[in-house]
Amino acid sequence: MRAVSFESVGFSYPGSRQDKSSKQVFEGLTLTLVPGKVYVMSGPNGCGKSTFAKLMTGMLKPDSGRILIGENDMVWMGLSDIGKHVGLVMQNPSRQLIMQKPVDEIAFGLIHRGMQKDEAANVAKAALRDYKLTEIADTPTQKLSKGEQVRLAMASVAVLEPDWLLLDESLSCLDGASRSKVLDKVARLVRHGGGALIISHSKDLAYELGAIRILIERGGVSVVV
Amino acid sequence: MWSDMDPRSKIFATLCLTSMALLVRMPLAALLLAALTAAALIAFGIDPKGPLKTLIRLAPAMLVVAVLQVLLVRSGRTVLSAFGIGIVTTGGLGAAAFMVVRVGIIAACGYILSGIGFADFLLAMKSMKVPYEIAFMAAMGAKFLPLLAEEMTDSLTSAELRGADIKRMGIIRRLRLYSEVLMPATFTALSRAEGISWALELRGFNPGAGRTYWRKLEMRMSDWMAFPLGIIAFAAFLLANY
C-alpha cells in the first residue's frame, strides 16, 4: 500500500472566455496521505475539494510541484496505472456507471485488468451480495437510486483492490442505512491496510469515524488530527 | 472590434462562412476563406487560440480521415507510387486539405455562435420568425453540449481508472467502449431535459402563449454592414469557384 504525497503543488484553472484571468486553486500545497488511515476533507463550496480529488486521480495535472504515489511521479503514469492505486467514486456516480447491468459494471474493471470473463462474473456476483445489491441485479444501472448507484460505483472500484478509495461527496445523498453500509466498506478497506479519503461537507464525519480531518479554505490547507 | 454585434449579424456571418466552407472547390479560395474566417473571429472579439485548441483536440480524428482520403481518392496526378501502384494522388491530397479547412472553419463558426447569450439567441430567432419551440430546443441543445462532453469525459476517465487503456486499445474495442460510454451520457441528457421541461412548466412556461420581451435587439450600422459584406463575399466566392 502506497502513500500519496503532494509536494509543493500549484494548480490554477485557465480563465474563461468572459473572464480571462486564471483562477488559482492551490499554491505550494504539501500534504502526505498515509495508507491505513481515513481522511475526511471538508471546506466551503468552490474551495478546491473536487480539484484535489481530480489531481489525486490524475484527471488534472499540477501546474507546478509533483504528486507521488509511493515513489512514482503521477505525471508519468497513465490513468489506468493510477487506477491501480486510487479508486474514485464520483460526486455524481451515474456518470461513472457505464454498463447496462450492475454485474457487468463490477466485472468491467476486472476484465480490463486481465481477469477471465467467467471468473470476473463470479467475483462481480459475490460483490453484489457483499454490497447488498443482489435485489437490483437486473435493474439498469441508470435507473438505480442514488444510494444504490453509490454502492455499485464503490463495489466496482473496490473489487480492483486499490490502495486508496476516494469518495467525492458521495455520502451526501445517502440515507442512514446506505451511508452505514458504505462506511462499513471504507472501514474494512482501512483494516486491510488501504487508505480512504472522503470529501464531505459534514463537519462531524471526521469525529464520527475517528478520521484525520483536512480543512481546505481558500488560500490554505490545514490538517487536524 | 465588433464583439457586441447583434446576434443576427453573427448568425448570418456564420451561415455565410459555413456555406462557403461546404461549397469551396479551389485551393486558393479555401485559403482565402480560412483567412476570412480568422478575420471574422478577430472582428467578433474571439481569441483564435480557442478554436485552435479545439482543432488540436480533433487532430487525431482529422488525421485518420485525412489519411483515408489520401489513400482512397484516386483522382489527379500520382505523386507517390510503390511497385507501379499509385498510392498518393494530388486529388487525395487536395481532398484531405479541404477537409481540414472545412472542419477548421466550422469549429471557428461554432465559437462565434457560442459567444451569443441564451436569451439573445432566442430573441434573434424569434425576430427571424423561427418557431419558438424550435429556437428553444436549439438553444437548449447548444447550452448542454459542453455538459454532455463533460459527462462523457467523466465516464471515460472512470473506465480508464478501472484499467481500460484507451490509448493502447484496438479500434474495435475502443469504438465499443465509446458506444458504451454514450449510453449513460444520453440517458443523463434525456433525464435532464425531462427535468428542465417540468421545471419550466411549473414556473408557468408556455411557448404557445403570447409574451412580451423586456430586452430588444437593435441593429446598428456595423450590424447592417455585415449583410452586404457577407453577400458580396458569397457572390465573389461563387464566381471564383463555379
Structure report:
Chain A is 32% helix and 26% strand. Chain A has a 6-stranded mixed beta sheet with strand order 6-7-8-3-9-10, with helices on both faces. A 4-stranded antiparallel beta sheet of chain A has the order 2-1-4-5, covered by helices on one side. The model of chain A has no long low-confidence stretch (mean pLDDT 88). The two termini of chain A are 21 Å apart. Chain A is of the alpha/beta class and 225 residues long. In chain A, helix 3 (102-112) packs across helix 4 and helix 5 runs parallel beside helix 6 (176-191). Chain A contains 7 helices and 10 strands. Chain A has a single domain (4-16, 23-224), classed as Rossmann fold, CATH 3.40.50.300. Chain B is mostly helical and 242 residues long. A two-stranded antiparallel ribbon of chain B has the order 1-2. In chain B, helix 1 (7-23) packs antiparallel against helix 2 and helix 5 (118-127) packs antiparallel against helix 6 (132-161). The two termini of chain B are 33 Å apart. The interface between A and B is medium-sized, with 31 and 24 residues.
What characterizes the major β-sheet of chain A? 6 strands, mixed
Shape of chain A: globular
End-to-end span of chain A in angstroms?
21 Å
Indicate the proportion of strand residues of chain A. 25-35%
Rg of chain B = 22 Å
Radius of gyration of chain A, in Å, reads 18 Å
- Helix and strand content put the structural class of chain A at alpha/beta
Give the low-pLDDT segments of chain B: none
DSSP summary: helix tally of chain B: 8
Following the backbone from N to C, one meets helices and strands of chain A in this order, namely EEEHEEHEHHHEHEHEE
Tally of individual helices of chain A = 7
Number of strands of chain A: 10
The main sheet of chain A orders its strands as: 6-7-8-3-9-10
User: Which whole number gives the mean pLDDT of chain B?
Assistant: 81
CATH topology of chain A: Rossmann fold
Whole-number tally of structural domains of chain B: 2
Percentage of residues assigned to helices of chain A: 25-40%
